[in-house]
């Protein structure tokens, strides 16, 4: 059984047939936290209180759109990872944690990876076609961010910020699905979620900090150096402050209290942060987002 370095051996992907396993690994389906961190901002967008809602918005609408957002997140996260691995296959071959991935290990050719990318984009297109027109246009606007992301680690010390702007775009799409447009409140929530991503992806980057230094890959983990705990703490503080400000401007200002469990979880991460715990703390951010979603729902009962 061939698995990548940071994939759980017991995951169903690593027990799948040999013919399909490399493609599922290329999409990172064996590491579901990635597509959850892409989908959950969309769920947050559905739960942010808004002054206006579409005329056809019903109590069950968040369930329908939430499911569609999850399907789109799985497809587009897989497509993004595939594209990222195509661009980075030479760099990945030089990093211990990524050398076992399907492209650098030779289990998938570049041509096969491009075809797999096209298949995932086709599923993403099907989800996009189901969106209202305003949300369609907002979703399209994310494509330059997605296309440029793999190159950011070569040109800036802040690729995590670019990832934050990219990975949380679903909050804008989801809010537009609900309301037909955007406003200052959701803009602040989006900025706050981007800062959250800077924090958690800095934690994730701690796993590769030595290899990244050797091959010249830039990251906030390297930029912060010995002050990485402070850097993560500042990112998380900015995140909770911006999200709180956005919720205070929403239709239901009491929703700002929903940030409390989210902020408490981020504080717990900062206090527990070590290189050895990096992957575990990174994965826990799915629970942080779910806490925020649940608390937003409770404030609107």
Structural features:
301 residues, mainly alpha, Tetracycline Repressor, domain 2, 15 helices
Q: Can you put this structure into words, describing what you see?
A:
The structure is a single chain. By secondary structure, the chain is mostly helical. The protein has one domain (18-299): Tetracycline Repressor, domain 2 (Orthogonal Bundle), CATH 1.10.357.140. 67% of the residues lie in helices and 0% in strands. The protein has helices spanning 21-26, 33-47, 61-92, 110-129, 133-140, 143-155, 159-167, 170-179, 184-205, 209-215, 220-224, 228-248, 259-272, 278-283, 285-299. Helix 7 (159-167) crosses helix 9 and helix 12 (228-248) packs antiparallel against helix 13 (259-272). The protein is globular. The model has no long low-confidence stretch (mean pLDDT 92).
